[in-house]
Write a structure and sequence with these properties.
By secondary structure, this protein is an alpha+beta fold. Helix content is 30%, strand content 32%. The protein has one domain.
Length: 118
Amino acid sequence: MLAAFNRLYLEVNEDVEIRNSLLPPGAGHRFNPPTASSDGNRFTVAVSGKIALNRPITFRLRESDIAVLNGDDKPMFTATVTISDDGECRLRVGGQELEFWQVRRRALEHLFFEIIPE
């Protein structure tokens, strides 16, 4: 579980860098790189700048899953690690076997593209 969580952290960091590169000049806000908690069991993606928005997305490593929490600290979904029939590490969300990018999209799409006006 820890390896999958660390992979998510690194890939979310890349997603934030890419999303920031797509912002228009003078956008007035930026997406902050994920910040990890001192115990290493959670990381958060937030927005900073002119927009007063406290809607971070948090990924929390728990004993048997990874919880994704919205800005109100309420669960959006949980993911468990699984191995696909082709031997690849995947994440299971709500009975669906997903690739890591699909889980990241579910977690970050609203923050990246819907609640921030361009």
